[in-house]
Amino acid sequence: MRNIGIIGGTGPQGKGLAYRFALAGHAVAIGSRSAERSAQTAYELNERLGGGTAVHGTTNAGAAVFCDVAVLAVPYQGFAEVLAGLAPRLEGKTAVCCVNPLGFDRQGAYGLYVPEGSAAEQAASVLSGSAVAAAFHNVSAVRLRDDDGPLEDTDILVAGDDPDAKEVAMGLAAAVTGRAGVDAGALRNARILEQLTAVLIAVNKNYKVNAGIAVSGLAPGARDRAAAA
Amino acid sequence: MRNIGIIGGTGPQGKGLAYRFALAGHAVAIGSRSAERSAQTAYELNERLGGGTAVHGTTNAGAAVFCDVAVLAVPYQGFAEVLAGLAPRLEGKTAVCCVNPLGFDRQGAYGLYVPEGSAAEQAASVLSGSAVAAAFHNVSAVRLRDDDGPLEDTDILVAGDDPDAKEVAMGLAAAVTGRAGVDAGALRNARILEQLTAVLIAVNKNYKVNAGIAVSGLAPGARDRAAAA
């Protein structure tokens, strides 16, 4: 079990992931710009988890100090600045980026231009002393919060250039889906995972659902064999 | 039932789709630069379909004349030139683009820069007299060829700005998966579907599989209700 710090843990995605990680037995620190808001979120989650103190609320800096794995779940606006402030505290640790740099116009969501290619590559550039992977972009925050049990119909796609960070993220995926994440290749593929969220936003609108992604054609157990390899 | 012309129908994706469309009862013309190669492909497919003449081989121009729906399955290299030559013959018809503009290097596959944003938007620009949708990017050519029966674990994501072209593509998807395609929003989202193939190529390499994509969180029948709406 790990100590997980959610940077931006009071937003829907960060809060939903915090719930799932705590439910799976990890210790979780909710980070936020506002320690009051994160304390409130931690209180709600601990209540929902049946009491106990698996989740605690703190600042983003506090979550960075606490964790051995940081989950980056802040909005893309201001993302690089937040990370730059946390870089010294995340040195030598693993960071899993689930940030989706999206804009919205009349046609729906679209991928914003990111000079480094993706938010995850930007994170790797700013957090040069950390091992970075990308995951959890495409899982519905509503289903993280509301579904009973693991999201067995859904896959967590994981991109990364650091094998250890990728393995950590693939393992954490089990807290969400009940099985290892799917190795989706190099960190640069994070750009595709980030933008894929724009497609899911369109699907959600067209069908009034909370859509996610699954990989077809993987034999049962293939994910876990790969995770163990 | 439709008259479908596969532009670039002797490649793996075009040939696999031709097989599925003919199996579903559509009349299919295989187009190719070489009428001899397309005749050979048509012969193979008709044999496999148990005789008959559901599939015929011709040139790309011949397939464009024959069809009411053109499926664009040529390699991205030379794509715009091929389309420009066919534009007059495709005027007033529907074109469904499944072209993936990908490059390959030591890290695997990656999305090539496309000035229009995506191959599908490029097609819409060159084929200004046709109605363009984008679909079938992410379905495995091997599974199209080898699987018995519809790929029920897989979804065909469809992007488009023209509602009629999108509806045609969503309907054709049933020939592959046994159910309507999933409305993935505006034509610009084709860029994401095209690049998503790079992720699936990474998954195929990492797990030795023929991966595809499914959308989770859609209730049974949701695809068909939307297709009928």
UniProtKB/TrEMBL annotation, chains A, B:
<dbReference type="InterPro" id="IPR028939">
    <property type="entry name" value="P5C_Rdtase_cat_N"/>
</dbReference>
<dbReference type="GO" id="GO:0008823">
    <property type="term" value="F:cupric reductase (NADH) activity"/>
</dbReference>
<dbReference type="InterPro" id="IPR051267">
    <property type="entry name" value="STEAP_metalloreductase"/>
</dbReference>
<dbReference type="InterPro" id="IPR036291">
    <property type="entry name" value="NAD(P)-bd_dom_sf"/>
</dbReference>
<dbReference type="GO" id="GO:0050661">
    <property type="term" value="F:NADP binding"/>
</dbReference>
<dbReference type="Pfam" id="PF03807">
    <property type="entry name" value="F420_oxidored"/>
</dbReference>
<dbReference type="GO" id="GO:0015677">
    <property type="term" value="P:copper ion import"/>
</dbReference>
<feature type="domain" description="Pyrroline-5-carboxylate reductase catalytic N-terminal">
    <location>
        <begin position="4"/>
        <end position="101"/>
    </location>
</feature>
<dbReference type="GO" id="GO:0006740">
    <property type="term" value="P:NADPH regeneration"/>
</dbReference>
<dbReference type="GO" id="GO:0005886">
    <property type="term" value="C:plasma membrane"/>
</dbReference>
<dbReference type="GO" id="GO:0016651">
    <property type="term" value="F:oxidoreductase activity, acting on NAD(P)H"/>
</dbReference>
<dbReference type="GO" id="GO:0070967">
    <property type="term" value="F:coenzyme F420 binding"/>
</dbReference>
<protein>
    <submittedName>
        <fullName>F420-dependent NADP reductase</fullName>
        <ecNumber>1.5.1.40</ecNumber>
    </submittedName>
</protein>
<dbReference type="GO" id="GO:0052851">
    <property type="term" value="F:ferric-chelate reductase (NADPH) activity"/>
</dbReference>
<dbReference type="InterPro" id="IPR010185">
    <property type="entry name" value="NpdG"/>
</dbReference>
<keyword id="KW-0560">Oxidoreductase</keyword>
<dbReference type="GO" id="GO:0102261">
    <property type="term" value="F:8-hydroxy-5-deazaflavin:NADPH oxidoreductase activity"/>
</dbReference>
